[in-house]
Amino acid sequence: WCRTVPNLMWPEPLTAFALYSRTTNVMIRGAMLFSVGVFLALVLNLLQVQRNVTLFPPDVISSIFSSAWWVPPCCGTASAMIGLLYPCIDSCLGEPHKFKREWSSVMRCVAVFVGINHASAKVDFANNIQLSLTLAALSIGLWWTFDRSCSGFGLGVSIALLATLATQLLVYNGVFQYTSPDFLYIRSWLPCVFFAGVITMGNIGRQLALYDYKFIQEKTHQD
Predict the structure, then answer these.
(1) What residues contact residue 34 under an 8 Å CB cut-off, 6+ apart?
(2) Neighbours of 168 (CB within 10 A)
(3) Is residue 64 part of a domain?
(4) Which residues cross the membrane (predicted)?
(5) What is the pLDDT of residues 84-143, one digit of tens each?
């Protein structure tokens, strides 16, 4: 009976394995993305604080990197959510992202993002408008070089706007402040940095999801 109707016997174990593997892989990817986000937050925020771009009140500074304790966990959580969201959106749209899918490209994307953040803190321009336009061009160039997907651009813009709004609220409530604000309570180039960060974490998340997908396919085929 098992030989005559094998399809009635095997789908459930394979489905259970795929579900277990996918859940495990999502947790692993989330942990890796969280770690990357925390590390980048510590390094990049240290640069901003040293250049007096952002100022935290003394009573909330509680880490060796002169950063408020809540900044790394928040950035890590946001990085994990973004990195998991990008491949999920690709799957829902039925259009897997295949442009420059290798780790060397991802590492170059990270390097460009760090350079954009570095430029926002150290490069001196005649005025904030020139700096903002330059960083906007660099951020769009990063998307064009390492992403080029409409879904990636749309998610990048949407998340950057939400992050900018959240930052405005934090500064308004006195959690921290920016020196020489020119866009309400913040610097006008901040959405550009957020956009570049979203594209970077999205690329990392897509690359991690690609290897998980291949592993599940190979394991299911072997079983």
Answers:
(1) 76, 77, 79, 80
(2) 16
(3) no
(4) 26-47, 129-146, 153-172, 184-204
(5) 999 999 888 876 667 767 889 999 999 999 999 888 877 777 777 888 899 999 999 999
